[in-house]
Amino acid sequence: MFGGFGNLIAAFIVFLILHSIPPMQRVKSYLISVMGKRGYYFSYSVVSVLVLVWLIREVWAAPYIEVWPFEAWAARATAHTMPLATIIFVAGFLRPNPLSIGPSDGYDKKRQGFVGIVRHPALWGFALWAGAHLLPNGSLAEVLFFGGLLVLSLAGMAIVDRRKKRTLGAVAWNELSSGTSNIPFLGLLKGGNCRPTVKDVYAFLGGLALFAMAIFLHPILFDVYPLSGFS
Question: What is the mean pLDDT of residues 21-49?
């Protein structure tokens, strides 16, 4: 059924359902009331990892149908993009930002750092990761996987914006979001700034460490050398 792509489609549907829970405040609040805050976040993290592993396994198991061939330039483009992706991804979870996912306490609008560059650093980091990996991986299953995650990341920005507007209120949202944008660097043209805090520095260093770890683990986990485009 579905030409051998049935399990991949099923895994992706479960992945989408799972990641629709956090924006659904009633469902999330109910789960927290049942499991507790720590129990919810621990369980959600474990299930998310398991579903992602399942999804990746189904990508590997799907029939190989070439959409475009592998090109060395595409692998090089991925390698060049990934340090930026890992840095802003880590920034999304490390530095305070009441406008997006991740911590919100301690946000200083006079020192927006990465938030002044993109309103949703974690989602943009994930989008860059998916888009960069889409280039050298041209089988149909890989295109569906990375392309779907890219669309999900970009759509997630609008979903988070809508939720934050509702929870913060119009006045607070307008005040906090001025000088930011979902389009990279546009917020700087709207009066924002990218003056860093110490958390932005930690995010930069942590992102580089994550990139180095990915280079080391990639051949072990995926049997693919990520710098093959340079050989």
Answer: 82
